Amino acid sequence: METVGILGGTGPAGRGVAIRLASCGYDVVLGSRDAARASDIAKGIAPRGDGTVRGATNEDAAQCGLVVVATPWDSAVATVSALRAHLSGKTVISMVNALSREGRELVPLYPARGSMAAQIAFALPDSTIVGAFHHLPAAQMEDLDSGLDADVVIFSDNDPARQRVGELVSQMPGLKGVVAGSMSLASPIEAFTAVCISINIRHKAHSYVKLAGLSH
User: For 3-203, CATH number?
Assistant: First the structure.
């Protein structure tokens, strides 16, 4: 299997994706601005399967065959722009949501191009951008015994790329990839993350998206 790099992978969201990718056989490079910190965090990730997780710089992660952007939203564009040459010609998965906390709720923010996926696509004109992993509770993702059984909504303007990501997601334990459509859906899909998190805050829960009526 190819190696997957995760930019900004040391946060809860990145760690959750890393452990589930490694648990289905992928080797994962956990990227960070601080390689030593990334290495320390990677040592604490224990996948079940033949895959591995190692810590490195974001530049190292960007050299992998497939790359996930898991940075905070306000540093995502700067991070990928600096790595544009390494990401050229590759499929780049954006799991970035622009959100702001107001009281007990998260509210969506709308970047100039309408979504973070669109912002990243503009910064990486030679890459193929696919959106995925937006509505997943990080704590459940990190815990392989959590019983997570979630659908992951996927969008892109490139059909082979979104199908490829859908197949990858469906290999990960507890997840099923569901292709929604084109990049035109990026804004509402990203914004819905605010609804999911706000519900979980209000109800002290770890709920996630499960789409009824699909033939899985």
Answer: 3.40.50.720
